[in-house]
Amino acid sequence: xxxxxxxxxxxxxxxxxxxxxxxxxxxxxxxxxxxxxxxxxxxxxxxxxxxxxxxxxxxxxxxxxxxxxxxxxxxxxxxxxxxxxxxxxxxxxxxxxxxxxxxxxxxxxxxxxxxxxxxxxxxxxxxxxxxxxxxxxxxxxxxxxxxxxxxxxxxxxxxxxxxxxxxxxxxxxxxxxxxxxxxxxxxxxxxxxxxxxxxxxxxxxxxxxxxxxxxxxxxxxxxxxxxxxxxxxxxxxxxxxxxxxxxxxxxxxxxxxxxxxxxxxxxxxxxxxxxxxxxxxxxxxxxxxxxxx
Length: 293
Known about the structure:
Layout: H1 11-28, H2 39-56, H3 65-77, H4 89-98, H5 104-118, E1 143-146, E2 160-165, E3 177-182, H6 191-204, H7 219-233, H8 243-255, H9 260-266
Antiparallel strand pairs: 1-2, 2-3
GO molecular function, one term: DNA binding
Organism: Phytophthora rubi
GO biological process, one term: DNA integration
């Protein structure tokens, strides 16, 4: 078509090109799987195009009203967004029983999942993702046993775990964040147990010099393990992935009557979008019916 790779300041021309791009994504997707993208995915791709032009070409993309009509049509025809199911404490205990802790790789996976669960981590903040390692991925030097004030202490004197993140995908200025989670007293589900297993696994794998806490553990490996366990217990494997860890942590806090601001700060959400993450568990509705009579 002899089109330039860049869009222009012509709103109608931009609408034509962006409309064709959006229609292609809706019909075919982008990875050759012949499976179209949903409205929310297309919106993210269009936002990336707008940002790229603003950053590298210096233009604010405009489009004509007919483009808005097209996007409303795509939104109406897109199926509902399928949310992943949360990893629950019961699911974690089942996983613990199935793993072989004499195998360092299993111990590494268990520690990583627990760290992600208790600190509401995004997968890119502690795992190796498809496109590589993010520069804000949790470093081994930034995770340690701590006292009640978050000060580094030996394991024997510790009552908590502190981690420091150099940034996040929603932290454009690299402010970073430090978070401390205290021991639960549970022999299985505890942030102190998580870090202990990670350090033991690093030692057994002879990777104590690895810069990142979870060494080379990938999101794909964790997701595959979740799906494997889901198939064993008779639930749909497609409902579980690495995102289930962050959803599970947020859901557990909501069920435990944690303050909304505490959930928001722990998960490092910049807006109230965190409210879309938790699912309403049965325990969270206990006593509600008695308030209605």
